[in-house]
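hi! just following up on the protien thing from before. the input was this:
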Amino acid sequence: MFSQNLLRTRTGEGSAATFFLTPAVLLLATFLISPFVMSIVFSLTDARLISPLPTEFIGLRNYQRLFSDSSFWQAFRNTFTFAAIVVPVQSALALFLATLIKQRLRGINIFRGIYFMPVVINMVVVCVMWYFLLLYPEGLVNSIVQTVTFGRVGPLSFFDNPALAFPMIMVISIWQGVGFQMVIYLAGLQGIPTEFYEAARVDGASSWQQFWHITMPSLRNTHIFVIVTTTILAFKLFTQVQVLTQGRPLGTTNTLVRYIFVAGYREMRVGYAAAASVIFLLVVLTISLIQRRLLTEEREVR
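and the predicted 3d structure came back as:
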């Protein structure tokens, strides 16, 4: 009798789980798995967005062309450079800001709102605002630079200079996105019991020792979430480049996502763009899995 009741209970729980999971599985299959499978299929053809000719199967020819295209490799390097710089800088700055605004001071909520405000502003609006601030030669930043240096430096063409264009896009991206990671870190900091810090102070630990031996280990799961999500967002870089530089100058600001956009929509080479999309997704997925694995192993070792 007990076994029958247990079996019925488990059967009922399994049915309930299936009922609640089905919508999520259907959404994942429709908007994630199906597009990826279709991209693989299209990447093996010469499909074009608008063409009177029938689509033909060409095998791996799109991938061969892709790997021999210097513009693809330049966009690939740019994307990796952007992620390699922005992810650690933005994450570290977010943790620093979260530590500051965690303090119980009068008016601290005002600073929290100021730091988070760029996140709720549309990226296109942010780019337009920064474009006018950095405008050559009469932008506000150029005016300040010339005033401070007594005319010895400037005006600077921030978006036409190969040495300045991509760094400025990095600065704008960090400024706009750091508030999101800051909120995540703030939630993690608020979840650390205050008793840990009180015990450390009793033992004579300095503020740096408390941060390194209490705060950082307690935020391990938060670190994993922030680093992985920031990496994915960094690899998706498109809007800033499209609005501010369109890949100029000399392709120094072009990225993988914009490369796919140009190939697929402007040049109408759908099959070729699909091949680039498959490579892009596999690279991002691999990096995300490696990051998660390394961070998880580090957590287990500690």
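Residues 2 and 43 are 56 Å apart (CA to CA).
The chain has two domains: 1-43, 61-301.
cheers
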